[in-house]
Amino acid sequence: MSVSMQMMWFSISGMVLMAIAALAIYVSRYKLKGFFKYLVGTIAYFCLFLAGIIMFITVVSGPTGG
Question: Do 49 and 14 form a contact (C-beta atoms < 8 A)?
């Protein structure tokens, strides 16, 4: 697998993590109560943080050249 293809999958995983985080934050705020609210919220914000790091690495690494 080429470097370009690896970076593509890496960035797509970041986008998926952002979508999971957005859905989990919505669920934790409006649908859950008690301990699970904080557990799901913590996991969601961790996913969001990880997705941000992935996106930062993808942008900083620049073009791969094909």
Answer: no
Among all chains, which residue has been given the structure tokens 């930062």?
Answer: 56
The CA distance from 64 to 10, in Å, is 13
At 30 the three-state DSSP class reads helix
Are 3 and 33 a contacting pair, CB within 8 Å? no
Whole-structure pTM over 0.85, yes or no?
yes
Domain-wise residue ranges, the chain: 3-60
The tens place of each residue's pLDDT in the chain, 66 residues long, gives 888 899 999 999 999 999 999 999 999 999 999 999 999 999 999 999 999 999 999 999 988 776
**Whole-angstrom distance, CA of residue 10 vs CA of residue 58:** 8
Total residue length of the chain? 66
